[in-house]
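$ ./design --mode recover --in tokens.txt
reading tokens...
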């Protein structure tokens, strides 16, 4: 049965200016006709059912988070991310968190890698109607080498099977891992194409983790089997290798120089900076208990990212919004719209440009043909927002301003979930942050 969203202002996600909305037709799970703008107003059919009167509000596409790790479980450290929690528990926890993401106005997200096949399981459970959640595209473990981001532990410990990375040594292992992951249902392949080890880059920075020929083996094999590929690539050289390999989109790219940014723009490959993770630590890491040295490093990283990515945006690199949600500094449901604010305040975008990056542009990581914009025939995934995000982009972070969320033409239950209990075995194994010396104790006692 058809129903209608009426009145308000329409931001359709295509990049077109906002215009008055007369009515938008919900035709099952799809969008039917849209009557908007200053031209003649087509009357509603007799007896039309009004689903929502958006007078004084903004109607816009649901947000798309191009970088949300649903298996991480609000991890406070690498041990929680890689070691604790069975595959079964992580999957159950993932569907709980998926609902929280949806209630924040995110109607689609891309999970670029995680433990086991948790992202795939959560995607399938939501799609089957077992649990509420956004539309999801999912990768599995990141293909890694010994210098990749995800090979965290010393070689004598190795790469745990429960970790988010899978060690691939040589082209044959890389190709076989691609085949195995596709066999098990991934939507795309994720490569840990660069590494940020303090041993490799003592002063900060990033190094390429794969050779250019190895990257091409992975991409060619995935494309041969009809799947896409993305990469964590911060090093400028790893960005160049991704371009040469024909990758589908790039995560971060914050250490590339201007020449590399120009090359990325020429290639037409989109970029998802995921600034929210870095900015949250740089701005508020002290509130979350991050060490001063980590906060200082992330402030330096953010400064570099802003310089490099502002140039990239101004010179034609297509940007997508993603947040690296899944960590304790980027918990689910909290910060998905902050990336849009950062695109405005740090990269110099207009609010309308940022909304396009968080809807249409990001939708290519999930289902660009059917999501990301409010157009006839696409899924009716939309938000009704109290206020005007073009006047203040920050209102999209206020869940109380989400007057309604529609997924596939149906209203989303916005009743908050009860808080989830953390279990003792989810703690980091770290015992303390500093050494307990006698002078430190004497100083503390003297100050009591």
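writing sequence...
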């Amino acid at each position: 049965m058809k129903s209608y969203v009426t009145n308000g202002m329409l931001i359709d996600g295509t990049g077109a200016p906002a215009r008055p909305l007369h009515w938008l037709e919900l035709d099952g799970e799809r969008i039917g006709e849209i009557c908007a703008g200053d031209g003649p107003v087509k009357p509603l059919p007799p007896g039309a059912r009004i689903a929502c009167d958006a007078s004084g509000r903004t109607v816009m596409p649901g947000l798309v988070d191009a970088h949300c790790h649903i298996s991480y479980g609000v991890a406070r450290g690498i041990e929680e991310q890689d070691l604790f929690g069975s595959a079964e528990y992580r999957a159950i926890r993932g569907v709980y968190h998926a609902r929280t993401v949806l209630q924040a106005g995110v109607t689609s997200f891309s999970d670029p890698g995680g433990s086991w096949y948790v992202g795939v399981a959560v995607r399938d459970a939501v799609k089957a109607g077992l649990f509420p959640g956004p539309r999801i595209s999912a990768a599995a473990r990141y293909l890694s080498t010994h210098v990749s981001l995800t090979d965290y532990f010393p070689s004598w410990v190795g790469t745990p099977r429960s970790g988010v990375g899978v060690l691939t040594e040589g082209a044959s292992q890389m190709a076989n891992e691609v085949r195995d992951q596709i066999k098990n249902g991934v939507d795309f392949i994720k490569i840990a194409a660069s590494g940020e080890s303090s041993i490799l880059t003592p002063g900060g920075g990033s190094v390429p983790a794969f050779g250019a020929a190895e990257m091409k083996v992975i991409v060619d094999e995935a494309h041969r089997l009809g799947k896409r590929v993305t990469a964590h690539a911060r090093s400028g050289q790893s960005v160049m290798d991704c371009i040469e390999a024909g990758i589908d989109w790039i995560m971060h790219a914050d250490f590339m120089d201007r020449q590399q940014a120009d090359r990325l723009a020429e290639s037409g490959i989109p970029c998802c900076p995921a600034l929210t993770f870095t900015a949250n630590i740089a701005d508020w890491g002290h509130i979350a208990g991050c060490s001063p040295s980590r906060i200082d490093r992330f402030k330096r990283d953010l400064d570099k990212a802003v310089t490099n990515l502002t140039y990239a945006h101004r010179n034609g690199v297509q940007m997508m919004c993603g947040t690296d949600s899944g960590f304790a500094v980027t918990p689910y449901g909290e910060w998905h719209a902050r990336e849009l604010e950062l695109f405005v305040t740090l990269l110099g975008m207009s609010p309308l440009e940022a909304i396009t990056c968080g809807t249409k542009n990001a939708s290519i990581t999930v289902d660009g043909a059917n999501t990301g914009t409010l157009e006839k025939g696409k899924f009716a995934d939309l938000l009704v927002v109290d206020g005007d995000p073009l006047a203040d982009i920050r209102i999209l972070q206020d869940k109380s301003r989400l007057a309604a969320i529609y997924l596939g033409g149906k209203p989303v239950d916005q009743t908050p979930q009860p808080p989830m209990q953390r279990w003792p075995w989810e703690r980091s194994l770290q015992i303390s942050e500093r050494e307990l010396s006698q002078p430190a104790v004497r100083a503390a006692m003297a100050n009591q």
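exit 0
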